[in-house]
Sequence to fold (544 residues):
Amino acid sequence: MVYTLHRYIFLDLLKKFALGLIVLSLVMGLGMMLKPLRSYNIDPMKVPTLIAYTMPITITMVMPIAALLATTLTYGRLAFDNEINACRSSGISVISLIYPAGTLALLIGLVSLLLGFHTIPYFISKFENIITEDAEAMIFRGIEKKGEISKLFSGMVIQADRVWPEQKILQGVTLVIADKERVKQVITASAVKLNIESEPTGQNNIHLQIVDGRGLFDDAYVELSRQGFSLPIPTMFKDKIKFKDLDELKQISADPSHFGPINQNFKSFRDQYIQEALFNYADNELRRTGVVSFNCDNGRIVRVFAAGCSYKADKLPSGKDTEFRAEFIASASGVITVEYSDPGNALLNKVYRCEQAGLKTETLYGNTSQTALYMKNASWQTGDGRSVNHSVEGVSGLIIPSEILELGKSVRLSDFTQMDKNEIVMPSYASPRLNKMSEKLWQLCRALLIEIAAEKHSRLAFGVSCVILTVMGAALGIIFKSGHLLTAFGISFIPAAFCLITMFSGKHVAENSANLAGGLLFMWSGVLLVTILTLFLYRGLTRS
Fold:
């Protein structure tokens, strides 16, 4: 008889739980996903698949509420119809009647942990793969509709006159790269070819191969005959710790470079480190010999004759540093001489004389950068003696010496995770900007490790809360005899909301105040208080 009763209650619980889970998941999932999917210009045929891949997220979020609602409604109806009293008069204890709710609670807790640590990251990976596969098509569809793409890539607008999706080619292209304070770069090209490429870290990029291009960087025009650069494919979930599985969390804890945002910051720091090492190299060479030489990626050679180098950082109106530059110091004559020679064709050789010149490493976008020599008020003479003047002239594609690149590779991200901030030693020539980037990277790595610890605890706390709230729902239903749906929902929502608020608030405290212990204590406090309240409720039921 007891087995039949337990099975009856359990099946009723399952039906109500499934119904509540489906309704709440659909309402929350559709409301959360439709707007971002529209802004990404996704193929409409793929939207249902993408929404299906995000359903585990919404299911996990609404699971404790659906379980609490189901148990409150089921046991409330049993109490309202006096079935609880009938069971008691037959010698069946209240605690025995709670076994089905306890079974459901354990199942939901285990499913919640499985979803949080393994299933959700798996489906998020599937979601991002679809975004990656459709990235090229998103660009072509957007340009075909509006002639431009402005929302897909942060800080970049892509305009094109014509698109050839089959050949993956854009024609008549203009790229505008800007931030909140200024337009940083403008690139024009007769054509651009698109290809998807992947990095060892798992970051997927769209590679843009420029054909017959020119770039405007500040006031300098630079030839970009066949320059290529990469755009990181935008992601909705991939670069968030809360969507990483347990193995990924362990891997990132051991080596933060496996986490995309940290890796990007480390690349920026290393690029700045290499720039300043290059400045120091050029300054030492000029002060020692009066000349410094660079090979170019087109096979030509640049030789600069000057007295030395000085550091300069461009400033925005807000006072922030933008780009680091090494400006050449003119010799006693007040003129800087630049020889631009081609070993294979002497007719292409030029000798520039200019008032101002410098080295500047431009980050085109994403992961791609190039070193260029710029000259202001430069002039050179043709073979027939005519003088050609340029207000601004640039030579791009300078190859950084191998010893400088090796010096940059010697910088390890582990230095910023295993050392105290005061133990990180920067070179004597490091600029204030490089020191600030070093401090920021250290802070980001420390914050990442705290975030990972908080994320693990939040998933565990969420799973435990599912168990406690489900069991509590049965007691609330019996006590309040809430046979009506709205009454059951109102009663069950209060402890669920309290538990979720303390968990999310505790996680926020741990991540943003760097007070991990305090945040974790606050995170678990809601679960602890609800557990105490549940025990108090059951104590009252056993006595009555």
About this structure: The chain has three domains: 2-133+446-543, 140-238, 248-438. The mean pLDDT is 80. The two ends are 24 Å apart (CA to CA).
